[in-house]
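Work Package 3 (structural annotation) set out to generate three-dimensional models for the target panel prioritized at the project kickoff. During this period the team completed the workflow that converts sequence records into discrete structure tokens, so that structures can be stored uniformly alongside our sequence database. As a representative example, we reproduce one entry of 497 residues exactly as it appears in the project archive.
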Amino acid sequence: MDFLKEITNTFSKAKKNNFEKFISRRRPGDSRKDIKVFDLLYKYYNKSIKDIGDLKGHQNYHAVRKRISKELINFLSLETNQAEIQDGNREHMLIVAKYFIGFKKYEQAWEILKKEEKICDERNDFLLNLKIQRLMLSILPYYPLVNFEKIKEKILTLKVQQARVDEFQLYFIQIKNMFIEKIESGHFNVSSEIFKRAIDQYENIKDYINHPDFHLKIIEIIRAEYAVKKDYSSLSKIIIDYYSQIKIENYSKIYPETIANIEYIVAYTFLETRNFKLSKYHLSNLQKLMKIDEKIFYNYIGKSVAIESFIKIFENSISSCIKLIEDTLSKFGSKITIRENLNLALNLSGFYCVNQNFKKANQIIINFNQSDQFYVKNMGREWVLRKNMIKVIIMIELGHIDIADKLIKTIKASNLDLMKMKQYMMVKPYIKAIEKFLESPHEVNINFLEKTEELVKLNKHKTFQDPRLIIYYSWLKSKFSKNKIYDILIEEYNSLG
């Protein structure tokens, strides 16, 4: 079917003029050529002229036709009060099919619907496929070649499949909301039953779901369950199994935003287990997508830099780590989310501490001038705890012992419930050690710290899977051993193997 010809043959002169005005408004600078070609084609298809001269032989002829066809679809969409179509959205072709049905061009409509049906079958897009089948039904009285029983059977099958997908989607939304609530409140008890149902439902649909959005959703569900428990070690093993089932290379071209999100989650997960090699690999995959898509770039520049900077710290590149964050905040701070700005700034403050530049670290902390309640709501309790622990370090190093002492007492009082949880069991001994230092700084030594470690049965290999904890510990050990913070950090990291 010559799509352009069939559409053009339905246009009155008035509609033709409206379409040409539409093109000129959308592409005011370079629409002249498109309008000229369309005008000639309109006359040719309506037999007003016998031929279109040398137009067909022009090197850009097919590109212009393709452009005109796309604009025709946009024009018809707006005419029928539909939103302008987005690239990759197949709904626009249903608009065209309906348009042909309105002109009793059933054969043309049927050809479009069959083509779109095939695409939906390949992508397992049940909802759009249902719409296609219903449009096919509307053609039944006028197009006898249609197989009613086949359409009926397909509609019933698609309804069952879509119902399963909808149930999975509902579990996903429920879990996402619960995850956000837990992060904010810091209470990490989870409903394992909801997670189990979501995973079971995914297992029911994964064999006939071929869309990466569903793979992303199951990855996010699993991530939520293990992230609230802070069990990133188990998460990394499970998540990489799901990752291996996704056809990343194929999907990267068709669904780059979805794949970018998956690559980010996997990169972050491996960061949390200090598996920097795998974290870098998936971060590199994300950065490749960022280079070819501006939207992806701005969605992930803050997140990717957060991961990359932590990796640089443990690669003995603290100067480049600090510069990376400083440059990112300077260049893109206004274009990334408030959450990402705050995360990067807090990380930078911590890295300044590691580099023993406490004045610069303090300058950042001072700029966190909202209440802790504000930050709890927007960043979660854990972020606030990290911020206040860094502030304690800075106050001690700058000689503001009274402020540090008061802040320690505030941290203890406001986080009593957190410190009872397994996820935060290491906070207590850190605070006790800091209190001991504040009480009698000249009496503490490395032996005291080692005894504290023995008392809490510190398993460094397990506890320091979270790279942030190595940073806190390195500062603490520096106060008890008089060695440089960064030297201790690298030494502790290397000792973990």
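Residues 148-185 form the longest helix (38 residues).
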